[in-house]
């Protein structure tokens, strides 16, 4: 079985540098750490986690809190948790999923995702006891990483407006969370910046489901006929497309439709949905890096937004 000295010889690094790369990755240059991790992966070297725990007083376990309202099988959750786990594994950490916002001594840090605004107080209390990082943004906390929901919808609305669409409606989410507010604000600011009309009847809400998106679109076209509809999620957009097709309204000939998520749902409808893809792997990796950095005493100066990418389909 390979030892730290073997890894040092393979990489040309000192045994101390190899140890730091495996135990305190923030203290090692990224290119050096990548070289060491590659050597570890190609060898039969295995760290003694029990010994490490005894020496450093660490469990090498990160709690990932997912509220009960989120289905773990949903693509948003599954993709993010997968990225977090992969990245933590590269730093020698494991993860444990939690449904209740409670911590114990069997963790070195906490990552929380899917919080309501009302949950922030509980999360702030946890952050006083353990290194903690939030998936989402907060004005009360600097240790967070988030998809730039505002910019994603703003860019999508501008993308549609720049194609010549003027009467643009928005189907948002009926849910109290920062990202819901930010997506709606991104739409409204883009409409204002492009000098387009914003009518009350062009703003409707739905739950995040195909059926609710279908019903919301039915309500919308019963009182107005926009040239384009920006939807807050792909599920809502798919329901919207089905409602328009039920009325034999051509997409995008009569009405253009866009979504937001890019988890694969956009390819299940015809025409293929134009959407803003959330960079879930990058977010998950950054969350993992952030909590490991905090554990190693490297603070986060401010929260980090990661911008979605517009994926052009045939619905706009």
Beta strands, count = 12
- SSE sequence, one letter per element: HHHHEHEEHEEHEHEHEHEEHEE
Q: What does the radius of gyration come to?
A: 23 Å
Continuous helix count: 11
Q: Helices and strands in order, then pairings?
A:
Layout: H1 4-11, H2 15-23, H3 30-42, H4 49-56, E1 61-65, H5 75-90, E2 94-98, E3 109-113, H6 120-127, E4 132-135, E5 144-147, H7 149-161, E6 168-173, H8 178-193, E7 203-206, H9 210-223, E8 228-231, H10 234-246, E9 256-261, E10 274-277, H11 280-295, E11 304-306, E12 309-311
Parallel strand pairs: 1-2, 1-3, 3-4, 4-5, 5-11, 6-7, 6-8, 8-9, 9-10
Antiparallel strand pairs: 10-12
Helix pairs in contact: 1-2, 1-3, 5-11, 7-8, 9-10
Your description of this structure?
The termini are far apart. 42% of the residues lie in helices and 17% in strands. It has eleven helices and twelve strands. The longest helix is centred in the N-terminal third of the chain and has 16 residues, at 75-90. The strands form two sheets. A six-stranded parallel sheet has the order 2-1-3-4-5-11, with helices on both faces. The chain has helices at 4-11, 15-23, 30-42, 49-56, 75-90, 120-127, 149-161, 178-193, 210-223, 234-246, 280-295, and strands spanning 61-65, 94-98, 109-113, 132-135, 144-147, 168-173, 203-206, 228-231, 256-261, 274-277, 304-306, 309-311. With 316 residues, the chain is of the alpha/beta class. It has three domains: 4-47, no CATH class; 59-147 and 280-309, 3-Layer(aba) Sandwich (Rossmann fold), CATH 3.40.50.2300; 149-277, Rossmann fold (3-Layer(aba) Sandwich), CATH 3.40.50.
């Amino acid at each position: 079985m390979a030892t730290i000295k073997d890894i040092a010889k393979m990489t040309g690094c000192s045994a101390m540098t190899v140890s730091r790369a495996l135990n305190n990755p923030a203290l090692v240059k990224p290119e050096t750490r990548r070289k060491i991790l590659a050597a570890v992966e190609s060898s039969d070297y295995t760290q003694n986690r029990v010994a490490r725990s005894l020496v450093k007083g660490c469990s090498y376990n990160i709690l990932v809190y997912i509220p009960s309202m989120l289905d773990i099988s949903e693509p948003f959750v599954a993709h993010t948790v997968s990225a977090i786990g992969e990245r933590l594994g590269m730093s020698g950490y494991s993860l444990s999923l939690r449904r209740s916002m409670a911590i114990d001594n069997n963790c070195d840090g906490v990552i929380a995702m899917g919080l309501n605004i009302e949950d922030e107080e509980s999360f702030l209390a946890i952050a006083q006891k353990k290194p903690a990082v939030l998936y989402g943004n907060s004005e009360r906390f600097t240790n967070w990483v988030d998809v730039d929901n505002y910019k994603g919808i703003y860019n999508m609305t501008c993308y549609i407006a720049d194609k010549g669409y003027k009467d643009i409606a928005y189907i948002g989410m009926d849910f109290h969370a920062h990202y819901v507010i930010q997506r709606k604000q991104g739409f409204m600011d883009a409409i204002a910046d492009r000098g387009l009309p914003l009518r009350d009847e062009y703003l409707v809400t739905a739950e995040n489901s195909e059926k609710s998106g279908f019903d919301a679109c039915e309500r919308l076209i019963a009182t107005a006929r926009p040239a384009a509809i920006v939807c807050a999620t792909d599920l809502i957009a798919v329901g919207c497309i089905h409602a328009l097709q039920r009325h034999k309204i051509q997409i995008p000939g009569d009405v253009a439709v866009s979504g937001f998520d890019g988890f694969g749902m956009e390819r299940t409808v015809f025409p293929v949905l134009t959407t803003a893809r959330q960079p879930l792997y990058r977010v998950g990796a950054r969350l993992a890096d952030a909590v490991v950095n905090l554990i190693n005493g490297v603070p986060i100066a401010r929260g980090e937004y990661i911008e979605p990418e517009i994926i052009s389909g045939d619905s706009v």
